[in-house]
Amino acid sequence: MSTPELDWFKSSYSSAQGDDCVEVSVTEQAIHVRDSKDVSRPALAVGREGWGRFVRYVAGV
Fold first, then answer.
1. With contact defined as beta carbons under 8 Å apart, do 22 and 36 qualify?
2. Would you kindly state where each structural domain of the chain is located, as residue ranges?
3. pLDDT at 3 (0 to 100)
4. Which of 2, 4, 17, 61 is a plausible cystine mate for 56, CB 3.0–4.6 Å?
């Protein structure tokens, strides 16, 4: 999946030094996730419902 048109932002939980960063882009169809150190690889695309379950799991809710 090529995603050059997406607007990416870094996770607020990423390292302050900028070396361990997760980038996220939100669209109507999906949440896209990638490693900021390797933007040449395809991003992981997750449906909004799946992303919500993941975030709740990680947050322990």
1. yes
2. 9-59
3. 44
4. 61
Cα 27 from Cα 50, distance rounded (Å)? 14
d(CA 56, CA 3): 26
Q: Are 48 and 27 in contact (CB under 8 A)?
A: no
Per-residue pLDDT of the chain (61 residues; tens, 9 = 90+): 454 588 988 877 766 666 668 888 999 989 999 888 887 887 899 999 999 999 899 988 7
Look up the pTM and report it: 0.71
